[in-house]
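Friendly challenge for the regulars: who can give me the C-alpha cells for this chain first? No prize, just bragging rights.
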Amino acid sequence: MSNSSSCSKALLCTGCLLFSVAAVAHPADQALGVYLEGGEAPHTEGNTSSVTAGIVVPWSHREPAVPPGALTFYWDFFLSTWRAPVPSRLEKDSYTQAGVIANWRWRFDQGASPWFVEAGVGGTVMDSIYRTASREFSTTFQFTEQVGVGRNFGAQGEHELSFRVQHFSNAGIKEPNPGENFYRVRYLYRF
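First reply, four minutes later:
Bragging rights claimed.
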C-alpha cells in the first residue's frame, strides 16, 4: 500500500470520527431562536436598566467537537433600550441600541448536556451618546463582549434560560471610554 493511500485513509477516518462526535451536539443549538432579556448596570447614583429583544441564527457549518464538549457557533442580532439616571435630575434618559454578536457555545458531556457556557464579541451602535452622573461615552459605536452560562428545557430543548455578563466600550477609539457592564437574564425560545 502506498504512503499517500495510507495518509488519505487516515485523514478520512479522522474526519469521520470528528463528524460523528460533532453530531451529538444538542439539537436546540441548530435551531433559530428569539429571546427577551433584562439586565442592570449597577451604579451608586442609580442603576442603568436594559430590556433587549433579539434573534439567534445558528451558523450552518459545525465546528469540530472539543472533548469533552461540543463547540457550536451562532449570530445574535438584537435591539435594546437602556434607561439611565440623568446627571443632576431625578429622572432617566432612554437610549436605543442595535447590535450583533458572534457567539461560541460549549456544551458539557460531548454536547449532550442541557448545560452550556458561551462567550461572544461584537459591535453595537446607539441612537445618542450615553451619559450618566458618573459615566459618559464619547462615541455611539461600542464594541461588546459577553460571557454566559445557561440551561435548556423542554422536550426538544426549545426553552433556554441563561445568565450573562456583558461589557460595552469603544476600545479606546476616543476618550472618555469608561465602558459599562450589565448583568443580564435571558429567556430564549427556539423553533
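The chain has one domain: 3-190. Residues 3-22 form the longest helix (20 residues). Your move, everyone else.
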